[in-house]
User: Which sequence fits this backbone?
């Protein structure tokens, strides 16, 4: 039973039985995901392939998620909740969001600076294709995301979901020590 308006609860930072939109600060009866001021985070996800987009959509139920893509057309599609990839669950979530049955706090952008600067947490899910000839993972896209993050938001926590070789995080810590 809802005893107080969600707004009152949010300003008092107590657990709420209503719902709260971090983007607008407003509440809505159509929301069924509960977000309180003390639990929601601003999460930035780079990029929106299978791994990044699934994480972005799942997390956008309970956090404010900004997804980064290098392709403006993909951003436009995602901002209309149209999936650029074939995935039953993402498509279902987007259909429900478009029907007003599911709340997703998801915005996709090509503006890396704004996306990295505003994050409480950065998730890196860029490709790391294996080079069969040189026998190494191409981690350049991961490093690009790390560099952007450190430039825009030096103390933020980064989580790398991309496939990386053993010892990689240790080596990038050393490589980017001056930027942290
Ligand atoms: N941790 C896990 O559970 C898990 C599971 C599967 C895959 N992975 C890894 O996650 C990573 C992403 O996999 P995926 O299946 O989502 O890949 P994907 O190919 O579906 O998506 C990669 C996305 O990155 C974009 N992209 C391409 N080049 C880029 C660049 N230079 N900079 C920024 N973005 C770029 C592409 O346009 C695409 O949207 C890979 O390293 C993969 O091995 C991790």
Assistant:
């Amino acid at each position: 039973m809802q005893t107080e308006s969600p707004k009152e609860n949010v300003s008092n930072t107590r657990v709420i039985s209503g719902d709260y939109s971090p983007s607008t600060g407003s509440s809505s009866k159509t929301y069924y995901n509960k977000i309180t001021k003390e639990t929601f985070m601003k999460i930035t996800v780079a990029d929106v392939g299978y791994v990044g987009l699934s994480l972005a959509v799942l997390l956008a139920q309970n956090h404010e998620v900004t997804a980064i893509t290098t392709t403006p057309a993909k951003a436009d599609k995602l901002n209309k909740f149209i999936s650029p990839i074939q995935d039953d669950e993402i498509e279902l979530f987007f259909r429900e969001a478009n029907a007003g049955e599911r709340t997703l706090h998801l915005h996709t952008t090509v503006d890396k600076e704004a996306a990295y600067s505003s994050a409480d947490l950065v998730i890196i899910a860029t490709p790391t294709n294996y080079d069969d000839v040189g026998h190494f993972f191409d981690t350049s896209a991961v490093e690009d995301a790390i560099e952007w993050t450190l430039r825009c938001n030096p103390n933020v926590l980064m989580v790398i979901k991309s496939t990386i070789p053993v010892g990689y995080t240790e080596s990038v810590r050393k490589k980017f020590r001056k930027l942290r």
In short: Residues 70 and 110 are 6 Å apart (CA to CA). Residues 47-52, 70, 125-128, 141, 144, 161-163 surround nicotinamide-adenine-dinucleotide (CB under 6 Å). The chain has one domain: 10-166.
